[in-house]
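User: Is it possible to get a 3D structure for a protein together with its bound compound? The compound here is zinc ion. I've pasted both below.
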Amino acid sequence: MLRFLAPLLTVFLCLPAQADSYITRLLNKPVPGGVAVVDLGTGAQAPKATYQGKPVLVVREQDSRWLAIVGVPLTVKPGSQQLAIREASGVRNLAFSVGSKKYPEQHITLQNKRQVNPDPADLKRIEGELAEQITAYRSFTPTTPSNLLLDKPVNGPLSSKFGVRRFFNGEERNPHAGLDFAVPAGTPIKSPAAGKVILTGNYFFNGNTVFVDHGQGFISMFCHMSKIDVKVGDAVARGGVVGKVGATGRATGPHMHWNVSLNDARVDPAIFIGAFQP
Ligand code: ZN
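Assistant: Yes, that's possible. Here is the predicted structure of the complex:
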């Protein structure tokens, strides 16, 4: 049976994407921590869009419409948001609306108390590391991403979801900014799209960490790695290995933690692998 279905399936998958619904249908999840796909119309030149003062990823759909792929920060309140569009004729504002989403809580016990309440020397280190990582998230290159629908960096079950409000030893800390996969230590981590390595480091919370810039502010970050296999400046192919799964930094055991960022907003990676749950 599969013998007959396979060619049909191939034909189906090779059909051009249908009108402007394709990217929108798959990626438009306009909630805090989600993605808003905003139609910028047709035009010869790519419009330049900014959101909260930060440049936004703009791609061209098959039927030549321009779409802004906007990362909505977790901190945004539901309601109307403004995108600033710069065109030859000037700047115009385009409104889009953000809905609500309730994120669950998670309570975690850590034996290492310093990872809950770091001492002054740790705090100094953390501050520097944070600045370094924020700079990486804010980098913006003109490259168009090789793919917007991302490949899973590892094959394995999802464990902790994005956006979960986390309490370490009873104290609330930053919400979970990425998605965890339950996979054994040593599992190779593959880049979900082509890109360039813009930052690596060994950080207090994130442990061994790699940032891959997929283009136009679309950035993946992998952390808690046992081993980093790339260095800053390396070009990474889609599927190229960047390192191995580990439990370095603030981790209760080996797992793969993956952040996806758009316009310096951490968004739910599940959206890009077709696993988003409203
Ligand atoms: Zn995680």
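Residues 4-20 have pLDDT under 50 and may be disordered. Residues 160, 176, 178, 180, 257 surround zinc ion (CB under 6 Å).
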